[in-house]
Amino acid sequence: MSASRERKKRIAQNQEPLAPQPKQPKKKLSEGWIFAIVMLSIIAVVIGSVLGFRLWQQNRTVLTVGEHKVSAKEFNYFYNSLANNYFTYASYFSIDTSLPLDEVPVSEENMSFLSYVADTSYLEGKQATNGVYDVTVAQLLANTAKEQAIQCYVVYDAAKAAGYELSAEELAEIDAEIEALIQARQDAKKAKNFAEADRIRDLLK
Fold first, then answer.
1. pTM for the structure as a whole
2. I need a surface site. Which of 9, 143, 198, 201 has the fewest CB within 10 A?
3. pLDDT exceeds cutoff 70 at 17
4. Rounded to 5 degrees, what are φ and ψ at 118?
5. Among 73, 66, 77, 64, which residue's Cα sits nearest to residue 158?
């Protein structure tokens, strides 16, 4: 065979269409994996929504004092401090603390005890029925917390107007108290005194 014919044969072979390659079947996820992925996505959305809602709850404004907006987190600081005092005095007076505070009514019987931890002037003008007021301990503490928050910002504004500022030593003392509370909470958790740990946690909020 001549060289020219050999060349033509090779060209013809190269121009022939290639046989189609069989397609590789795509790997499909099993139903178990699909279910797991869907469930993880749902859980992530739920957790994100809950955390976002809690963050909004903590930072929403519940009280306005002049130009100051008191957030729920700040308000809870005052309320939790009062609630902790309530439980401390209750242990001294052997008062039952098994019920939630929003289920404990204020009565003439516990009025003298409550005067140690709350501003009972909130009850002025309210009448007791059979010695019981239509007010719970939680409502009384919440009103006292509101008054304390207002007073705190009034004093703050007055001090600021007078040019008073905390010294470096006073700021250091505050930081030291916070660190001491954090350490006390860690010690309580190590000792498995979870009630005390929760009490300190509420103070740090």
1. 0.60
2. 9
3. no
4. -145, 165
5. 66
Under 8 Å between Cβ of 144 and 122: yes
Give the distance, in angstroms, between the CA of residue 28 and the centroid of all CA atoms in the same chain.
Answer: 42
What is the number of residues in the chain? 205
Tokens of 14: 């190269």
Question: pLDDT tens for residues 55-108?
Answer: 666 668 888 888 888 888 888 888 988 888 888 888 887 788 888 999 999 998
CA 151 to chain centre: 25
Burial of 89 (0-12, 13-18, 19+ CB in 10 A): middle
Residues 6+ apart with CB under 8 A from 119: 140, 143, 144, 147
Residue with tokens 């959305």: 45
Alpha helices in 29-167 (DSSP H): 31-59, 72-92, 111-114, 137-161
Do residues 61 and 74 lie in contact, with contact meaning Cβ atoms separated by under 8 Å?
no
DSSP assignment letter at 94: T
What the block records as the tokens of 192 is 């498995």
Taking Cα atoms as reference points, which of 2, 4, 8, 158 lies closest to residue 68? 158
